[in-house]
Design brief:
This is BTB domain-containing protein. The protein folds into 3 domains: 13-125, no CATH class; 165-264, no CATH class; 271-330, no CATH class. It contains 17 helices and no strands. The chain has helices spanning 13-19, 21-27, 48-59, 73-85, 94-104, 111-123, 127-140, 162-190, 196-208, 223-227, 230-233, 245-250, 254-264, 272-278, 285-292, 306-311, 317-330. Helix 1 packs across helix 2 (21-27) and helix 8 (162-190) runs antiparallel to helix 13. The termini are far apart.
Length: 331
């Protein structure tokens, strides 16, 4: 209820002045606010836990319980909003968030939880958490992924094309999976042997036991669902009698097993360091050199391969296209 005192907190005036431009303007000796010389300051807030976390972090008096479930996922968003509104550097709470997130991850999170944590991980510069959550969502989402803001503060959202990068990675893996499974079909069709028809039928029987089948429903399944299907893990085809060595080779489980391994290790999540390096539009040549030298995670806090480097790019699409053209010409 507006006007009702719901919490009282003892604070140090100088700490507030040193950490907030808003409080500095209110409390400095040359100020003209009623709070300038007041010993008690009233603040209208909608979320008490968020204010307590911020003030305790600034004063170095954090309570152990505030690293745990007493601070909810929406509360974390409220903390970010409070820091923004009071012009407090949010990264001063980076250590608190890292410990809070460590505890939050001790329980199994659903998709909404992961989507709700994307922006906080991004804001508090938690590279490992952001990479882990974007990787999990890319592999385990069957449909287009969006971030989830549990508050009414619509201005709080990921910068740039982060969600586009996440969905791009998901689509890329699905495309690689489809091509890897169906490329052998072309080889069967182009073969000159008499056994190709029976071999092709045997291959389709093998495909029918994977999560990719039926083909018109594959988009309803996540990449991880397909990779973890029994027929994908233990891909087997019955070798037709009289099959030639080429057809036997194409019906082998070796290539599907290798395809599964490659897709499982394809995307390592979005990299905050690559995103930061490219989101200004003024990209240093070192970034492109990482691709030329195949050192995609050079200087990054997480280890990752080329797909993460590519989909973490937040700059102009034309610059990336020009780089890719230059790479092709150099081959």
């Amino acid at each position: 209820m507006r006007g009702t005192v719901v919490a009282s907190m003892k604070v140090n005036r100088q700490v507030l002045i040193d950490n907030s431009q808003v409080f500095k303007a209110m409390m400095s000796s040359d100020g003209h606010w009623k709070e300038t010389y007041a010993s008690t300051i009233d603040m209208e807030v909608d979320n008490i836990p968020s204010v307590e976390v911020v003030l305790r972090a600034l004063h170095g008096t954090m309570k152990e319980e505030l690293y745990g479930a007493s601070v909810s996922f929406p509360d974390v968003w409220e903390i970010i909003q409070f820091c923004s509104y009071r012009q407090i550097e949010v990264l001063k709470l980076k250590g608190w968030f890292a410990k809070w997130l460590e505890n939050a991850l001790k329980v199994k999170l659903d998709h909404d939880d992961l989507k709700m944590l994307l922006f906080p991980c991004y804001t508090f510069d938690h590279a490992k958490g952001f990479a882990s959550m974007t990787k999990t969502l890319a592999y385990n989402s069957a449909e287009h992924t969006t971030e989830y803001n549990p508050t009414d503060y619509r201005h709080l959202h990921l910068d740039g094309n982060a969600i586009g990068g996440l969905n791009g990675a998901r689509g890329s893996m699905r495309g690689k999976l489809l091509r890897g499974l169906f490329d052998p079909v072309a080889a069967f069709l182009e073969a000159k042997c008499d056994c190709k028809a029976n071999a092709l039928f045997a291959y389709h029987i093998g495909l029918s036991k994977t999560g990719i089948w039926p083909i018109h429903d594959h988009h309803k399944k996540s990449v991880q669902d397909i990779l973890d299907s029994p027929g994908m893990i233990n891909f087997q085809c019955t070798i037709p009698d009289g099959a030639c060595s080429s057809c036997r080779s194409r019906l082998s489980s070796t290539k599907v097993t290798e395809l599964r391994r490659k897709i499982l290790n394809d995307f390592h999540g979005l990299c905050l360091d690559c995103m930061t390096m490219t989101k200004t539009g003024d990209i240093d040549s070192d970034y492109w050199d990482h691709d030329r030298m195949h050192e995609w995670d050079a200087g990054c806090r997480i280890q990752h391969s080329q797909p993460t480097w590519y989909f973490s790019y937040m700059g102009r699409k034309t610059d990336m296209k020009n780089h890719q053209k230059a790479m092709k010409r150099a081959k």
